[in-house]
Amino acid sequence: KVNLTINGIQVSVPKDYTVLMAAREAGIDIPTLCYLKDINEIAACRVCVVEVDIKGVPMRNLPTSCVLQVQDGMNVKTNTAKVRNAVRMNVELILANHNRECLTCLRNGTCELQKLCDELGIKDIEFEGEKRESALDNLSHSIIRDGSKCILCGRCVSTCRDVQGIGILDFTRRGFNTEVAPAFDYSMKDVPCVYCGQCIQACPVAALRERTNIDDVWEAIDDPEKFVVVQTAPGVRASLGEEFGLPVGTDVTGKMVASLKRLGFDKVFDTNFSADLTILEEGTELLNRFKNGGKLPMITSCSPGWIRYCEINYPDFLDNLSTCKSPQQMFGAIVKSYYAQKEGIDPKKIVSVSVMPCTSKKTEANRPEMEVDGLRDVDFSITTRELGDMIKQARINFTKLPDEHPDSILGEYTGAGVIFGATGGVMEAALRTVADILTGKDLENVEYQNVRGIEGVKEASVVLPIEGKDTEIMVAVAHGTANAAKVLNAVRNGEKQYHFIEVMACPGGCVHGGGQSHVSAKARLDVNPKSKRADALYELDRSLPLRKSHKNPEVIKLYEEFLKEPNSHLSHKLLHTHYNK
Ligand code: HC1
Ligand code: SF4
């Protein structure tokens, strides 16, 4: 332990602590901006400076507390005139080069810079001057990069490079003209970005943000000729409440459905339904690969960021990918075929909207192959945050809404569909169904704890009878593209053998997707949105009467009335796809 004094308080902390951490433990709040715990600790913004002497000898200048290691006999002061003036000046210098159109900014209200200015009492800026020239890149379907808002904190750079292992964004140019951008100023549209939006989650301001489709959705709702249906992803219900001040990871399924009905959608359905459908298609595909000597390991295909990552970086694994479209796309294909037929609606009049915790889903919905007979599976995909904005625009009092149920016939779901949103959930849902099919039993144990949790790579094995022989099925779960790379490299060089792998592009899975509510760097010191939101989904799963996808009555009916059986000819036409090298 190391003993030091902070603002006159004696503190005793482990020796690998920084002054910032030690202060926190002593209940002293040092402001930060570029700091993102464990991801970006680079002292770039100099907002966390403190005054320090060690055994009476003052340290030169004002050190940054986020990287300053504690030492015995340190005497730290966080609230002297010298510190206050320096912090204010550092923030004012950032502001001088920042597009301060706060009132019309997407991050108005969730901006960490705005909050910091308020906390520091900054009311005017002394250093008004020239601003650097900067680009607005809105060419991709998913992500907008707005250089005029960038404060060069580097949080997105570290996240994309170190957490995701991709490295699309970096500091470019020099001095006053420094900017964060892809190499050679390429558009995000033209680089190997997977649109996971983890950089948006890291951005404290609006320099990186989703390309919104709110106006497209309003326009469809307002058009009396259109029949507008909406599906909501599993992960959305675990985060949407945060837009309205509810604690991180509050399950708001009922209020979410009620709000969508009030927004004017003609039908409110649930992606959980098509998650169940995916399990039947994907589980059957896996069993067929076992039986027919097909390519193994089979790898899940529902995360579009992961698919793009695989296409770009591991094309030798494309035959390992399940041919199943994602639940988002399956839903769209079913709505414009089976549902339209059954309800006597012209499928050309149907506008299919999805609400997703994801920014990559926008790009997935726009992939050229994601249509059947000229009808797009999904016309518009919006994020959890965009839905929150629409609810606010409609002046719906979200927290006062009653709990309502999704519409029939594509709104019924089981617990297996719900847990898709958490890392390991697709694997667990698949095992529930595959185990029942192979044993011919209705197995009671449905919880596969080994594939749960936020460890980067998880492994498990299950013994099941294949062709009458007890076989140990080896599975792995990876979340975050850097972890996916680890697993694929191990498979490629023969170190590991698996039968089935789940990959989600985002760390934590969809619950921590790029489209979920922003949780500030400061709030993340107290709550882990990945595990909190996953807990909400597992809790919801436990509360449901049906927890296996093959028990979903509406999915059973869909096969009886329309698709006939999993992997049928019609299933292949509507629900399966191919990948591009
Ligand atoms: Fe996901 Fe999926 S689980 S990919 O994380 O397979 O986005 O939530 O909707 O499509 O169901 C996301 C979540 C989501 C699909 C499903
Ligand atoms: Fe990197 Fe993902 Fe952001 Fe693209 S969307 S720049 S891959 S973090």
UniProtKB/TrEMBL annotation:
<dbReference type="InterPro" id="IPR009016">
    <property type="entry name" value="Fe_hydrogenase"/>
</dbReference>
<dbReference type="InterPro" id="IPR003149">
    <property type="entry name" value="Fe_hydrogenase_ssu"/>
</dbReference>
<dbReference type="InterPro" id="IPR019574">
    <property type="entry name" value="NADH_UbQ_OxRdtase_Gsu_4Fe4S-bd"/>
</dbReference>
<keyword id="KW-0677">Repeat</keyword>
<dbReference type="Pfam" id="PF02256">
    <property type="entry name" value="Fe_hyd_SSU"/>
</dbReference>
<dbReference type="GO" id="GO:0008137">
    <property type="term" value="F:NADH dehydrogenase (ubiquinone) activity"/>
</dbReference>
<keyword id="KW-0411">Iron-sulfur</keyword>
<dbReference type="InterPro" id="IPR017896">
    <property type="entry name" value="4Fe4S_Fe-S-bd"/>
</dbReference>
<dbReference type="InterPro" id="IPR017900">
    <property type="entry name" value="4Fe4S_Fe_S_CS"/>
</dbReference>
<dbReference type="InterPro" id="IPR000283">
    <property type="entry name" value="NADH_UbQ_OxRdtase_75kDa_su_CS"/>
</dbReference>
<dbReference type="GO" id="GO:0008901">
    <property type="term" value="F:ferredoxin hydrogenase activity"/>
</dbReference>
<feature type="domain" description="4Fe-4S ferredoxin-type">
    <location>
        <begin position="180"/>
        <end position="213"/>
    </location>
</feature>
<dbReference type="InterPro" id="IPR001041">
    <property type="entry name" value="2Fe-2S_ferredoxin-type"/>
</dbReference>
<dbReference type="InterPro" id="IPR013352">
    <property type="entry name" value="Fe_hydrogenase_subset"/>
</dbReference>
<dbReference type="GO" id="GO:0005506">
    <property type="term" value="F:iron ion binding"/>
</dbReference>
<dbReference type="Pfam" id="PF13510">
    <property type="entry name" value="Fer2_4"/>
</dbReference>
<dbReference type="InterPro" id="IPR050340">
    <property type="entry name" value="Cytosolic_Fe-S_CAF"/>
</dbReference>
<keyword id="KW-0479">Metal-binding</keyword>
<dbReference type="Pfam" id="PF10588">
    <property type="entry name" value="NADH-G_4Fe-4S_3"/>
</dbReference>
<protein>
    <submittedName>
        <fullName>Iron hydrogenase small subunit</fullName>
    </submittedName>
</protein>
<dbReference type="InterPro" id="IPR036991">
    <property type="entry name" value="Fe_hydrogenase_ssu_sf"/>
</dbReference>
<feature type="domain" description="4Fe-4S His(Cys)3-ligated-type">
    <location>
        <begin position="82"/>
        <end position="121"/>
    </location>
</feature>
<dbReference type="InterPro" id="IPR004108">
    <property type="entry name" value="Fe_hydrogenase_lsu_C"/>
</dbReference>
<dbReference type="InterPro" id="IPR049830">
    <property type="entry name" value="HndD"/>
</dbReference>
<dbReference type="InterPro" id="IPR036010">
    <property type="entry name" value="2Fe-2S_ferredoxin-like_sf"/>
</dbReference>
<dbReference type="Pfam" id="PF12838">
    <property type="entry name" value="Fer4_7"/>
</dbReference>
<dbReference type="GO" id="GO:0016020">
    <property type="term" value="C:membrane"/>
</dbReference>
<feature type="domain" description="2Fe-2S ferredoxin-type">
    <location>
        <begin position="1"/>
        <end position="82"/>
    </location>
</feature>
<keyword id="KW-0004">4Fe-4S</keyword>
<dbReference type="GO" id="GO:0042773">
    <property type="term" value="P:ATP synthesis coupled electron transport"/>
</dbReference>
<feature type="domain" description="4Fe-4S ferredoxin-type">
    <location>
        <begin position="141"/>
        <end position="171"/>
    </location>
</feature>
<dbReference type="Pfam" id="PF02906">
    <property type="entry name" value="Fe_hyd_lg_C"/>
</dbReference>
<dbReference type="GO" id="GO:0051539">
    <property type="term" value="F:4 iron, 4 sulfur cluster binding"/>
</dbReference>
<keyword id="KW-0408">Iron</keyword>
